[in-house]
């Protein structure tokens, strides 16, 4: 039993009877006002973007805004980055606690960016504003956005070298930036003094203020039109509605446990691998996410604190479990999170957290989503939302120094938000799917980046053979290449992951997307070719990555975490990121679909033969023979099941559900639940670890698809039906560890189908 102190989101004390009561406001009024809230959120975003000149805010949309109840619960949020909205209630809680002994007045605004006061990481700055009506505090509004620089040891403020929060840059606990409508100039000057980009940060923060003013004015207008009581009642009803619908969805799923482990490579100092263990316990209408078995906090800057943890979990749960449900506090009310202090996912101060969003937080989101997808796969109604991992890594490339106009300059390229989409039971993943934590993804166009930054882009393109291979294929990975232009030097650092550990996991026997990759070609001929107008000739096909070998120079392959280094004229930076995870055994993919993939260049002919068993221009009968032979070859290499099947019934059975592409959940005549292969091979009782009753094989380096790399401590293990050789799982795991029990069913419910 976990101690109550281990809970981040404690056991819900919601009165279940209260959830089922009818609306206490007219349904038409409810719909009008809840949509008005969304309109306010949209207008807040427009106000911020109109004022901001930051490529991260205006171009990439790395921000969010929200409305809150008077006591700080999330009522309505914008469709931008979910990380921010999930963390803001904790930020607001700290604002109210820190100013409990001081008057909070109409016209005040409070600024925060300390991760140990709720911020996701310190470059994510929040400004919260109370909203008063007729002299009474009735609501709050807030905006959070990533800032290009908040000081610290490195441009972009995310420093590989940081070991404690004090080394990372300006960290503000809740501070009153605006007091009764007047700017605190002393606080403003302190912030501008600490950033390398005061003009850009200044405009961003003024955009925050404008956004909060828009929310205050529009909410006040609504209260004047409908009455404050009606507006506040709708806020409460909206949260109650979301919680009720979330709990209804949970009740429609079987009870049991699902589990996934994600891994983060490199802590900035050592190339160690850190584990994120997500165990989801589903009982009735309650969902518990237990992360107690995750790695201890790291010595480096990859940790996350509580705000990032909650934001990351909301980002992994809401897009799947909350489909069709307004995203607000009601979803969080349905979840209990157990994460004892001192873990990498809930670090103790003063641990460094600079890479929280683009490191540990990202892994939490994807690992949570992968686990939720397994649970949804058991439901005929919800299976369409089950999928491989989308956009497994956030490769954040920070640059700074002086731009081509002689001005101070800083930027974070967020091209990686293009993302490869995870495949699902019915379709391939999209090539440009965005990411789970950003329902409305944006990336600046190349011309915007070149106008703002001293860069010449050589290409931005998708790459073949990069989506996770499966019965349904993951979306392709993309990448960019660029060179400094118009300057004598740039400073550059990289924070990424998934370089030696795939995290774009596939589902149910599919491969993950390929690993991330980054390199610098030093002293290339790119400048000479550009000057001689030869560079465009290299781009033979629009949309195809150019042949960088033609540029000459010396290649430096970058680690997942790269400390700041200089870039000189002639240097070319190329970085790519992970494609989406696949879904199902690749040998089950339709032959004609593989041939089409080869014809349009998504999959190479070599990969089609090695992974899918398909050779173009070959008779279908020959392909079927080859695939059958490949399944037999798998079994010849695999170890026999580690446990003998016991307590199974091979008599009359009823299929309740399809857990994955070819793994079935069946019920026997005595109502026992069993896992079995579609071929009829029964593995075990549904409370046992079904993987221990399969044939397993750790793939050798030669057997790995090109682009998938593994840390020396890790392996990629396939779990096969011992009779037909069908692959039902492909797990990234630590060497020597027992197979992870990813599904245990304790109770079937009739509502599932």
Low-confidence segments, given as residue ranges, are 537-543
Taking strands numbered 1, 2, ... along the chain, how are they ordered across the largest sheet? Answer: 3-2-6-5-4-7-8
Query: Which secondary-structure class do the elements indicate?
Result: alpha+beta
Number of strands: 29
Number of helices: 16
Largest sheet: 7 strands, antiparallel
SSE topology:
Layout lengths: L6 E3 L6 H4 L7 H25 L3 H5 L3 E7 L4 E4 L4 H17 L10 E4 L11 E10 L2 E11 L28 E5 L2 E2 L1 H10 L3 H29 L1 H24 L3 E11 L7 E11 L2 E5 L15 H16 L7 H5 L1 E4 L18 H20 L19 E7 L5 E6 L32 H7 L2 E8 L15 E7 L5 E6 L21 E6 L3 H6 L3 H4 L15 E4 L3 E7 L4 E5 L14 H9 L5 H8 L7 H18 L15 E6 L4 E6 L4 E5 L4 E4 L9 E4 L15 E7 L6 E8 L8 E5 L6
Parallel strand pairs: 11-12
Antiparallel strand pairs: 1-12, 2-3, 2-6, 4-5, 4-7, 5-6, 7-8, 9-10, 9-29, 10-11, 13-14, 13-17, 15-16, 16-21, 17-20, 18-19, 18-21, 22-23, 23-24, 24-25, 26-27, 27-28
Helix pairs in contact: 2-6, 4-8, 5-6, 6-7, 8-10
Describe the structure.
The chain has 753 residues and is an alpha+beta fold. The protein folds into 3 domains: 8-243, no CATH class; 387-582, no CATH class; 640-753, no CATH class. The protein has 16 helices and 29 strands. It has a 7-stranded antiparallel sheet. A hairpin with a 4-residue loop joins strand 22 and strand 23 (663-668). Helix 2 runs antiparallel to helix 6 and helix 6 (198-226) packs across helix 7 (228-251). It is globular and about 75 Å long. The two termini are 33 Å apart. Residues 537-543 have low confidence and may be disordered.
